[in-house]
């Protein structure tokens, strides 16, 4: 009886990281089992911010849910608007005037700058840098948000796009300010990278941590910078060429390893590409109307807008990945079905695979590098 | 000059002379001790208060903002406002916590932080007690912090606290070893463990014969300072209280004045570690022209400034990387540094000394870097798809 081997197993420690935790980026909870400091299992628990987004939209006029799309990913309301507008325009076959297309692209790319720069700031916060990178990131973000405030009336909940065009035109003074921001941005990026990219601690912490292999990225339908960091050449702007993207010149940066460092670098490189896109668009922006005259009336009276029966899926390359809106119309002023393909939510599904075997500190930066916004995860 | 240099010492003597007029001789000893104790007990917390203000101002500047500026000019009364806030806050003890230990831990942590002030030579003749084992006393007493931190983390009955406590014990015990070894060259060179003797040994060359100007002194200074940063749980070694990972580490469950005591201990040890680094390698109060205590304060605050600069710039290391740094890099290098110090004193001729010590140190650190290759950052090239 005494011969039985005595197991000197230490207990695993079960810790709930979240929903109240400084680094879960909102009310997200990770149920983590730890062996010392090493993670043996991780269960993501979401839904604390669930607010019936789709059901609400199905009981509203089409335009009525435009402001609701702002609340999905509240960092990037312009791209959310863009995706939704594309879906409805596809559903009802609406033409968009040239100037509106250009302004939409400007806004989408400015949003990408806002998102990437703050994600990198937050990632560094997760790494333990005491707020310095994020405050510099927020300084740049603030300039862009000021532009949004001036043209749309709100800094984050922009509600700027309309079906077939835009709510308001861009005054020349704002255009000049955007040009100034775009000119200054590469300099800021150089400075930012000077502090971060070659920092030994950052490299040690981020390299070869949370590796997402190419195959897993494809089979889990990961999109956006996260997929591109794993080497998946998938950018909706290139594939669909929606709006005027097929006329613009830009390149898609691809990573090889797919770790946290690659995700960080891909975002930096994408910002540089966005600046390039903005330079082209700002040079070529034409004069003209900003909304399809047929749709201008509906912007005032949204309940009169009844798209024909049918279905449509509109998607954009949102800063976090493929943001898609699936709409089914039954000819009434309300969509019969409204579905959001939220990139944060789908990218989050691989969290457990990435974290197992790493330390607690790594789980935090892996979550930070996935780039989630809880408004979008728990729509 | 001498008047300014000895101003504090002479004022203490004046008080004692005054007291001796109407007190017996035995009581004078007690008064003398009380003056020293009172000065330290006032200086420690006062330093802590203004270090919090200084850090907030400095990190604010680093981060392109102003920092505290509402209370008093330049926010100079901010620490007092903070103190009042801390005192009036509700004191929360978690349900199921060990109440006695939970209360004792922050008290216990402040005591060693204050005790170590007693062997710090603030200026010429300005040391509370010149122990002949001063340095050993300092290192031994400051090691007691580990127990207090673990008490607090265990008594809090919180998993984040417990994780923080485990990290603390691992970190402080590991860094204790290279820290002591990094102090050995200074002991070898001065032939004494007394902090005053160590400073006096650096007095040549018009007060500029600091150990840091020799190769082994330079390496020892860097090693000792780095371990000191880790001993005070400062960035980039602040993993016991890593905010983004384990909320606040060992002091997660502390609020009000108890929390303030944790902070007081941390900031006082920031000061004392900087002071000891200055004493061991930067010549302590030695220096030309200025009064000795001014030199000491300049050096100490320069080191404190660098610690805060770290905080404003660097991310945090991971647990295993930090332990790796202590055991795989700092420990061997400090041992080699002791050897180099020995060679320095057993060889003659400046060229031979310099060549031998710099050579050994460079080669050995290069070898250590080679051994630690797998942990070094790699360079990456990114491709672009059209």
Keywords for this entry:
heterodimer; A: alpha+beta; three-stranded antiparallel β-sheet; B: 386 residues; mainly alpha
Walkthrough of the structure:
With 379 residues, chain A is α+β, with helices and mostly antiparallel strands. Chain A is 49% helix and 14% strand. Chain A has 16 helices and nine strands. Chain A has helices at residues 53-58, 66-70, 77-92, 98-127, 132-152, 172-196, 200-206, 214-219, 224-229, 236-239, 260-284, 293-300, 343-348, 351-355, 360-370, 374-377, and strands at residues 13-17, 29-35, 38-45, 161-162, 165-166, 252-254, 310-318, 321-329, 335-341. Chain A has a three-stranded antiparallel sheet. In chain A, strands 7-8-9 form a three-stranded antiparallel sheet. Chain A has a two-stranded antiparallel sheet with strand order 4-5. With 386 residues, chain B is an all-alpha fold. Chain B has one domain. Chain B contains 16 helices and one strand. Chain B has helices at 2-5, 7-20, 25-62, 78-88, 99-115, 134-143, 145-155, 159-190, 195-200, 204-207, 215-231, 243-246, 256-281, 292-313, 319-346, 350-371; one strand spanning 383-385. Chain B starts with a helix and ends with a strand. At the A-B interface, strand 1, helix 4, helix 5, helix 7 and strand 6 of A face helix 8, helix 12, helix 14, helix 15 and strand 1 of B. Strand 6 (252-254) of chain A pairs antiparallel with strand 1 of chain B.
């Amino acid at each position: 009886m005494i011969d039985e081997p005595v197991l000197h197993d230490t207990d695993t420690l079960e810790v709930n990281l979240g929903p109240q935790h400084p680094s879960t980026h909102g009310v997200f909870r990770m149920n983590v089992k730890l062996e010392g400091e090493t993670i043996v299992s991780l269960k993501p628990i979401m839904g604390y911010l669930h607010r019936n987004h789709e059901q609400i939209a199905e009981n509203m006029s089409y335009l009525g849910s435009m402001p609701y799309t702002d609340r999905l990913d509240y960092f990037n309301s312009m791209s959310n608007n863009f995706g939704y507008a594309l879906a409805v325009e596809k559903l009802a076959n609406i033409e968009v005037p040239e100037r509106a297309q250009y302004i939409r692209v400007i806004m989408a790319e400015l949003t990408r700058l806002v998102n990437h720069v703050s994600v990198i700031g937050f990632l560094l916060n997760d790494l333990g840098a005491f707020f310095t990178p994020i405050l510099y990131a927020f300084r740049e973000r603030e300039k862009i948000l000021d532009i949004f405030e001036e043209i749309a009336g709100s800094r984050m909940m922009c509600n700027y796009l309309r079906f077939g065009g835009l709510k308001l035109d861009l005054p020349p003074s704002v255009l000049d300010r955007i040009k100034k921001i775009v000119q200054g941005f590469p300099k800021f990026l150089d400075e930012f990278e000077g502090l971060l990219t070659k920092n030994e601690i950052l490299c040690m912490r981020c390299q070869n941590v949370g590796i997402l292999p190419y195959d897993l990225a494809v089979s889990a339908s990961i999109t956006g910078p996260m997929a591109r960091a794993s080497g998946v050449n998938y950018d909706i702007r290139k594939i669909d060429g929606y709006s005027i993207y097929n006329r613009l010149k830009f390149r898609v940066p691809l990573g090889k390893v797919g770790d946290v460092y690659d995700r960080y670098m891909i975002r930096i490189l994408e910002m540089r590409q966005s600046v390039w896109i903005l330079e082209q668009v700002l040079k070529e922006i034409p004069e003209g109307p900003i909304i399809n005259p047929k749709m201008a009336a509906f912007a005032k009276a949204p309940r009169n807008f009844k798209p024909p029966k049918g279905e449509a899926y509109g998607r954009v390359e949102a800063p976090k990945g493929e943001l898609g809106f699936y709409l089914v119309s039954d000819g009434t002023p309300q969509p019969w079905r409204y579905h959001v393909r939220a990139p944060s939510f789908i990218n989050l599904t691989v969290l457990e695979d990435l974290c197992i075997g790493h330390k607690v500190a790594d789980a935090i930066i892996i979550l930070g590098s996935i780039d989630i916004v809880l408004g979008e995860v728990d729509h | 000059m001498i008047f300014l240099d000895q101003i504090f010492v002479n004022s203490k003597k004046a008080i004692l002379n005054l007291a001796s007029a109407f007190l017996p001789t035995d009581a004078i000893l007690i008064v003398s001790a009380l003056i020293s104790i009172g000065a330290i007990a006032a200086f420690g917390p006062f330093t802590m208060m203004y270090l919090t203000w200084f850090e907030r101002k400095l990190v604010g500047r680093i981060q392109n903002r102003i920092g505290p500026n509402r209370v008093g000019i330049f926010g100079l009364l901010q620490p007092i406002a903070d103190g009042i806030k801390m005192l009036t806050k509700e004191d929360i003890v978690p349900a199921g916590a060990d109440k006695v230990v939970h209360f004792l831990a922050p008290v216990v942590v402040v005591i060693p932080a204050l005790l170590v002030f007693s062997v710090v030579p603030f200026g010429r003749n300005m040391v509370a007690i010149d122990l002949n084992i001063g340095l050993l006393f300092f290192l031994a007493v400051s090691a007691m912090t580990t127990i207090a931190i673990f008490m607090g983390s265990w008594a809090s009955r919180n998993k984040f606290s417990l994780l923080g406590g485990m990290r603390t014990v691992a970190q402080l015990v590991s860094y204790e070893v290279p820290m002591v070894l990094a102090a050995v060259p200074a002991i070898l060179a001065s032939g004494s463990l007394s902090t005053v003797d160590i400073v006096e040994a650096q007095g040549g060359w018009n007060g500029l014969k600091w150990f840091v100007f020799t190769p082994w002194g330079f390496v020892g200074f860097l090693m000792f300072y780095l371990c000191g940063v880790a001993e005070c749980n400062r960035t980039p070694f602040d993993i016991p209280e890593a905010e983004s990972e384990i909320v606040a580490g060992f002091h997660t469950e502390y609020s009000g004045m108890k929390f303030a005591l944790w902070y007081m201990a941390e900031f006082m040890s920031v000061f004392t570690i900087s002071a000891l680094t200055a004493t061991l390698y930067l010549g302590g109060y030695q220096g030309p022209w200025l009064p000795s205590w001014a030199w000491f304060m300049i050096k100490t605050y320069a080191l404190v400034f660098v610690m805060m600069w770290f905080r404003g710039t660097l991310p945090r290391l991971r647990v295993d990387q930090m332990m790796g740094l202590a055991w795989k890099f700092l420990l061997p290098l400090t041992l080699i540094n002791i050897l180099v110090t020995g060679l320095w004193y057993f060889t003659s001729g400046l060229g031979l000394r310099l060549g031998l010590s710099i050579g050994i140190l460079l080669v050995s650190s290069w070898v250590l870097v080679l051994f630690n290759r797998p942990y070094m950052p790699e360079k990456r090239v990114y491709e672009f798809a059209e």
